[in-house]
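Quick one: structure tokens for this chain, please?
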Amino acid sequence: MKKYPVNIWDGLISCITVKPATSPFSFYALVPALAVFVLIAGCSQKTAAPNLSDAAEQNREQAQTAAKKIDTARQALEEIPPPAKSRYMVIHTTESWSNPFLVVGSDNLTLRVIYPDMTHSNALPSAMLKPARARRQELTIRISDLPDALGALPVEEWPYGRVVAVEEDPAETRANRLQVRRNVETTMQALNNLGIVIYEWPAPNRGR
């Protein structure tokens, strides 16, 4: 076996054996981990950005659809003349009210209409109708569908002019009253956007 000088072995040992205090091993071991962390963080940001963009685009499309509904309904409602207070302020019972009547609940709206005759029974989509009496129809609708529902009514359903009575549903529980009031405000805003006069129906002490 060939023997090497002692200084050669000492050199090899010094290359292999490094004192922990001066070893750069721990620092270099962290570099790949840091690189992976930065890569993952960057990918997460890139993934989240399109989601936020998609949500904003969806909200924009919904707003445009709602605005289009209002514009279409307003054009249809322009055929109805402005209301005359002398005609509708003297009505004291819902049975005598001939214009559209809205009952606002915690979930939906009930739209009551009185048809002069059955020839207008198909004025609204059949899926929205809930027959009650021969000349009276009750429709359960969402607030978002209000422009379509009112815009579809024929002129004959507006004998007092462009005015709608609005009432909080007296059958709602006390626990739902706050939500009902919020829906009333949203409904009134929708009616204002349509150019419809609002007649807030008095409390239930008035005849129904």
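Helices lie at 6-16, 25-77, 85-88, 146-152, 177-193.
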